[in-house]
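Table S2 (text version). Query chain:
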Amino acid sequence: MMNNEQLIDLVGQMTLEEKTAQLLQLTSNFYEGTDTQGQITGPMEEMGITQQSVYASGSILGLSGAQAIIDVQQAYMEKSRLGIPLLFMADVVHGFKTIFPIPLAIGCSWDTQLAEKSAEIAARESAVSGLHVTFAPMVDLVRDPRWGRVMETTGEDPYLNSLFAAAFVRGYQGDNLQEETDRLAACVKHFAAYGAAEGGRDYNTVDMSERNLREYYLPAYKAALDAGVEMVMASFNTVDGIPASGNEKLMRDILREEWGFEGVLISDWASIREMIAHGAAEDDREAAYRAIRAGVDIEMMTPCYVHHLPALIASGEVSEKLIDEAVLRILQLKEKLGLFDNPFRAANPEREREIVFSKEHRQVSYELATKSAVLLKNANDILPLNPQAHIALIGPFAESEDILGWWSCEGVKADAVKLGTALQERLGTDHVHLAQGSGVHTITSEQIAEALEVASKADLIVLALGEDSEMSGEGGSRTDIRLPGAQLELIKHLRSTGKPLATVIFNGRPLDLHGIWEESDAVLEAWFPGSEGGAAIANVLTGVVNPSGRLTMSFPQSVGQVPVYYNHFNTGRPLNPQKTEERYVSKYIDSPNDPLLPFGYGLSYTTFEYGSLDISSQELSNELPLTIKVKVTNTGERTGVETVQLYVRDVTGEVVRPMRELKDYVKLELAPGETGTATFTLSEAQLRYHHSDLSYRSDKGTFHVYVGSNSRDTQESSFQLV
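Corresponding structure-token output:
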């Protein structure tokens, strides 16, 4: 083990070229020992870096596999003058090889313990395969489902996002990285406000007030820091007109000084050089100058630092102290991971074969997929499926392996459990008959004829529809968030049969459900459910599992409403729902204001009845919090889980406050006829917000409190903050 003084001494032994190279992150094809080593010369020439810089570089992006990483680390260490090991990093976003539901789906479980477990398993599989750092969790708050990377977030609410951010960090990192070698260092991203890109278009401009930034977008990053996250990734976007990778106020003033972050700050892919395209740097030299002054320690996949930092130091424009600080932070992380004592850490080909994609891990993936599925509609209780019924399973996802979603790391589509296979195993091949019906984007007359033939022999049709994985994720922004026309045409043909129709949707974002909602008797949101997705969704459809997922993003009536989110402000001319004919109020003339499905929404195969609210006092003070209770009874015939949600509205603030804000929730599992009590404690601290001067405090006055099954369907009471 090396103490901090020894690490500082090690920095002092490094040449300036070695130090700047330590700040460089490259992909594996630059290094000896990989099956891509024959490709070294081309990328080096393209980037204009020397073999010496490669030998002194600090980290590798994207390589995995225990033996491959051992080989590269060994070859590297043989050439490292000072014996400084490499860091190996990768995008392990929702699983390594055992793929869990996409993070947006995980959010809909409202189960932070299971989310933490998924990150722990992802870390275990990654670490034994040689990795040290994951570029996760992504905690960007998102209100625009057009943005492809919405699949990586846990939703539109800062409080819930913060809970999941901390849970993921705990899962990845554990309590002690040096001792728990089956853990990873986590890297929270993207700092900051990447999810607010204009028009939902990836990499686009973000422009908002600092008060809005602090109130809604920063809390989840701060929660990750409070949980001990070791790394932060700068976002691609501008913040207040300055690209994040060169934003001193964001990175130095807020992240480092105000929040006290002492870990490693890394750029996103090529984002330092992208300051030129933004118009914030004239050339690579100025980009390097701005990024190092902002405090970015590692430059991912561009050579601005190695080319220009030595000259910037020689000219006196940049202090070498900034480089020393950055290098020290990188070495401190390597020491926390125990790499100086064991450069190979947990990499072990034999254990890798035992641990990765194990039955135990896949079981947790299955459980999370069942809890992430959200039942959106169930007219006439056509779900769960009658085991004696003849089912026609039709659609491009009936037998699709493409259910892992974007950022599935080492996941293999062929390993995913297909819905058709799982449903036939449960109900029998004589009861479940399959037809493709259409492709994701195309449909033929032959497919229609086959679908109608299969449907004619069935009692009920299950339609398996959705987006392919390329339709969301990074670079997957869309202006039309309906399903492709081919699938909407398929629905119309099958609706004409008059048979009951249940639609299952596999997708990476909230959709405009026109063409699905009105044509389907039941709608089940499966998201991209991961490796065990088919098994999980089959068990939800058949009632083995009672769905309990709740939406963490609102579903719009149409894309024209976007952004639409529950914690919006009122206006000076609010719409009165009883007077929709009024013109000069804040409304659309061709659509309701409200989303089709609100934040927190989700159905069950049972029903729940709420008793009246019990509030301990009509006044709340610093010394006396409120206790809020409500009894909930399962009035149906199945055991189910109800997620009881607590919202608050500050009626009058120094700046306007949202109509509702989630403050807490309780999950009650109740047997038929059973009554449980959801108990909440509300304190003055939970009522604080950022004022116009950015001070963080509460306002005395009237507050409304709402409790219910989602952000729309609630009971109301009120109290005074005194």
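Notes on Table S2: The mean pLDDT is 96. The first helix runs from residue 4 to 13.
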